[in-house]
């Protein structure tokens, strides 16, 4: 019996030693990561795709009470996973709105319309994980550039639409859930 265990241990060591990771294990402290200027909500890029062999990106998003998150959109190249760290948010999946609270995970596969917003009277914090073949980080960089170009004569919405299209993202404001209209289009 001891001999079989030794062989199994040797196989495990060989298998584990053959695994190669892009970067070593890291700890990202709450004060670390890159703050991204996003018009509707503060966002911290916690884990860049280059930090993992699988190319996952992780973002922390803070939503003030009764504030928009993302407009209804569809990704051609990415899957998203939204985890509610704190508070409660509304999520639109296709044409249905759902309330999700602390501890909930929303899986948003590519090709499926989705949006999220905070319709409650309390702040919310979310963890967004993105995987796929697209360059979602370049999209966020473009959002930040568009948000900070105050002297650009082209309307912000037009710049966002062009950036989304170039990133394989289709924004469909016409499909915004009825429950979200007062948040996205006040008055």
Q: So how many helices?
A: 4
Based on the structure, what is the oligomeric state of the protein chains? single chain
Strand content: 35-45%
Poorly predicted sequence stretches spanning 5 or more consecutive residues: 1-21
CATH topological fold name: Jelly Rolls
Order of helices and strands: HEEEEEEEEEEHHEH
Strand neighbour order, sheet with most strands: 1-2-3-10-5-8
Q: How would you state the average pLDDT, rounded?
A: 84
Please provide a written account of the structure.
It is a single chain. With 187 residues, this protein is an alpha+beta fold. It has one domain (37-177): Jelly Rolls (Sandwich), CATH 2.60.120.10. The chain is built from four helices and eleven strands. The protein has helices at residues 2-18, 136-148, 156-166, 181-184; strands at 34-36, 43-47, 57-63, 67-75, 78-86, 88-93, 96-101, 105-108, 114-118, 124-132, 169-171. The protein has a six-stranded antiparallel β-sheet, covered by helices on one side. The protein has a five-stranded antiparallel β-sheet with strand order 7-6-9-4-11, covered by helices on one side. A hairpin with a 2-residue loop joins strand 6 (88-93) and strand 7 (96-101). It is globular and about 50 Å long.
């Amino acid at each position: 019996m001891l001999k079989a265990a030794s062989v199994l241990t040797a196989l495990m060591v060989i298998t584990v030693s053959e695994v190669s990771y892009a970067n070593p294990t890291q700890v990202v402290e709450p004060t670390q990561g890159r703050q991204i200027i996003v018009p509707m909500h503060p966002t911290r890029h916690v884990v860049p795709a280059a930090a993992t062999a699988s190319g996952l990106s992780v973002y922390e998003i803070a939503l003030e009470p009764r504030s928009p998150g993302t407009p209804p959109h569809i990704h051609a190249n990415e899957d998203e996973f939204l985890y509610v760290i704190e508070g409660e948010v509304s999520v639109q999946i296709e044409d249905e709105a759902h309330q999700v609270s602390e501890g909930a995970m929303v899986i948003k596969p590519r090709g499926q319309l989705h949006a999220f917003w905070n319709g409650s009277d309390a702040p919310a914090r979310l963890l967004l994980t993105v995987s796929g073949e697209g360059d979602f980080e370049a999209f966020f960089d473009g959002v930040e550039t568009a948000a900070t170009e105050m002297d650009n004569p082209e309307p912000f919405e037009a710049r966002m639409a062009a950036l989304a299209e170039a990133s394989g993202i289709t924004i469909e404001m016409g499909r915004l859930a009825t429950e979200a209209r007062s948040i996205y289009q006040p008055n």
